[in-house]
Amino acid sequence: MTEGIVSQVDTDHHFVHRSTIPTMHFQDSLPRLPIPKLEHTLKRYLAAQEPLLDDKQYRNTKRIAKEFEKGAGKRLHRELVELDEKNTHTSYISDPWFNMYLSAREPVVLNFNPFISLTPDPREAYNNQLVRATNLIISSIKFLNSLQNNYLRPDIYYGNPKWSESRLFKNFIRLLPTSVSWYGAYMVNAYPLDMSQYKRLFRSSRIPKLNKDELFTSECSRHLLVMRNGHFYVFDVLDSVDNILHPSEIVAHLIYIIQEADHLPEFALSYLTTEDRNIWATVRQQLLEAGNEENLKKIDSAIFCLCLDNIFPKDEDELSQCLLHGNGFNRWFDKSFSLIITGDGHAGINFEHSWGDGVAVLRFVNEVYRNSTRHPALLPHSRSSETTVITCERLKFKLNDSIQSAIQVAHEKFDERKKKMSMKRFQFRKFGKDYIVKQRMSPDAIFQLACQITFYRQFGKVVPSYEACSTAAFKHGRTETIRPTSMLTKQCSQAIVEERRKRSVAELRNMIDECSKYHRRLQMEAALGNGFDRHLFALKHLAVSRGEPTPDFFLDTAYQKINHNIISTSTLQSPAVNLGGFGPVVSDGFGIGYHVSDNWLGCNATSYLDEELQEFLRCLEYSLNDIFDILEGRPLM
Ligand code: BUJ
């Protein structure tokens, strides 16, 4: 796209906004993700191990860590630092993290792809499937145009939000050379974030390959992929000079697709994207050999995938299931993201995780929600254009017997796996962020503590837990792990569950307060790249990638145990999002997407253990009531 052409036209029609500060203004001067000192990493590691081990196991793990620190760990750490110094364009975690995702052979659906559900449009009539789809398509393309033209506001975390609105700040910052721009923002307590992941948001797909997948991004495609009843359609949403198709023309195409794709195909190709990656890689090769190369290219290079579902979810749990996995035939799970619109106009995103993290996807969701609700391109009573020339192409695939039976097998396996997974929404209305902040505690810490108490109440023990934390404040940062299980949360859980009548309210409150402070510290450390998980992960990756024997440290059962995350959690905050979640990361665990809102808190929880999940949510309610009573100064009964 040439900037000259689009800059002459009305902003509203082409961009979500035109930022004073260019999108990539800070990229060159972003700070680098630090590699913590090995000594600090191991100290943090041992602190996280302590609540999970008995005394003897802990002493053993401590000994192994000491040996690692003096031996293999010391050498690997030095080599990691040397490597990092040679790769100043990126972060030490970027390659190992891509490698982790792309080498994983489990199906992406349920195991990796999360979903985010968009809050309904406040005006009911705009939630019609065709109206919402058209408006969200157009806002998404405006986002793409803004990104391509360097008009998208860079992500900045403002320590003092007043600067986010300041013209003076923006005009000053944009004049700074890109080599120092980050420092200018830093001077006013503003922290620009890494924007590198956005280049794979659009026109991108994960391509299955034997043993390690690849990411593909097209330079300049103009077409959208639309799925309906398991059929694939493509049509250009950008014209030859990158103007967005008129809304009435877009809706005319969607109407055509809905009318044409009125039955399910005998063999729905998309089930293959739910398969184990090596199986899918082999079948994809067969598809290429059977003459489907052009069609696959059209899918891979499409700007994104729109799934026009024929599903009418009866409640939030059914909607969440639809967005996390659906019925498999109307998705292409390898696309960087799919925009799913149900028959009754609910909208959500399912995204492939290897290319990027929650921060980039949430930004996209926020912008398209805002733009599509404030400046909807299509009004509910608008008509589709009767004069539109439909340029839609239905992709017809050549499927030989072997491919057909592979689809059949994938279909059966997918149905089996999705049947085994339960997903439940939970909401607690007695307090939320405002109340917790008034108690001078951290809302996130309180939710995490509630999960710890809950698990202890249900199973009488503590287990490895994971909270995702973005490290996008650094160049090519990804995530770090916060470890919500600590000696403090263990003691607090024991006190609340087992000694509830023996302990005074003041004592319990003090324990909660200590947990909150400790969690806040862990959160801060993780966001600054000072956790322990990624550092250890990178050291292990370095040894393995060089073909060296795996150091004893990583063979310790305690190391393996702490990486079997029974409670895996992630949170995000946005008025544009009303549901969100992901599958459990282990067969005996829970996947918890949660949200602490102003006056309530809630989660979407998943598990392969249905009864345990129901009980977990019952206990969570109990635990939150306990916390509430304590904070209110009422003794526990
Ligand atoms: O940790 C990482 O590197 C990435 C993580 C991996 N994991 C999901 C396993 C933790 N990925 C993310 O954190 C991205 C997750 C994006 C979805 C988050 C969902 C948040 C839900 C909020 C809404 C809940 C509303 C409840 C309503 C009652």
UniProtKB/TrEMBL annotation:
UniProt cross-references to SUPFAM superfamilies, sorted A to Z: CoA-dependent acyltransferases
Signal peptide positions (record): none
UniProt domain Choline/carnitine acyltransferase: residue ranges: 33-621
Native organism: Apteryx mantelli (North Island brown kiwi)
Gene expressing this chain: LOC106496972
Alphabetized InterPro entries for the sequence: Carn_acyl_trans, CAT-like_dom_sf, Cho/carn_acyl_trans, Cho/carn_acyl_trans_2
Keyword annotations: Acyltransferase, Transferase
Protein name: Carnitine O-palmitoyltransferase 2, mitochondrial-like
Similarity-based family: Belongs to the carnitine/choline acetyltransferase family.
